[in-house]
């Protein structure tokens, strides 16, 4: 996915199948409905600061951060309503609590089985 930071490759991207089938090398950010990043020790800062700013700037409606290395303990944060390079926090839960994704997804993710190191 192109961005002002270069090419970003999220851990998971959700976009309409019909649109993605026409892309041979990358998916334009404008097609993404949701991106997901899972932090590791080496990239946590990038996933918390740089990537959400780039995704918000691109207008991606939802950003889900699965942060195993959050300072207060593992969390899942759903960001939405991008304005400029900033998202609003829609939901934030500790591992073990469910996180609900709004429509068009309308699903609840059970985080009780997420690994904690």
TrEMBL record:
Putative restriction endonuclease domain span: 9-110
CDD domains, per database record: DUF820-like
Pfam short name (any one): Uma2
SUPFAM superfamilies in the cross-refs: Restriction endonuclease-like (SSF52980)
Source domain of life: Bacteria
Protein name, as recorded: Putative restriction endonuclease domain-containing protein
Lineage: Bacteria, Bacillati, Actinomycetota, Actinomycetes, Kitasatosporales
């Amino acid at each position: 996915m192109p961005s002002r930071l270069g090419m970003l490759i999220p851990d998971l991207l959700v976009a309409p199948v019909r649109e993605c089938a026409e892309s041979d090398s990358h998916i334009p950010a404008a097609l993404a409905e949701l991106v997901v990043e899972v932090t590791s020790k080496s990239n946590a800062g990038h996933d918390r600061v740089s990537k959400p700013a780039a995704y918000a700037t691109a207008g991606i409606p939802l950003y889900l951060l699965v942060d195993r290395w959050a300072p207060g303990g593992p969390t899942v944060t759903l960001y939405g309503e991008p304005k400029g390079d900033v998202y609003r926090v829609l939901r934030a839960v500790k591992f073990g609590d469910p996180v609900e994704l709004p429509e068009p997804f309308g699903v609840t993710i059970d985080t009780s089985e997420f690994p904690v190191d």
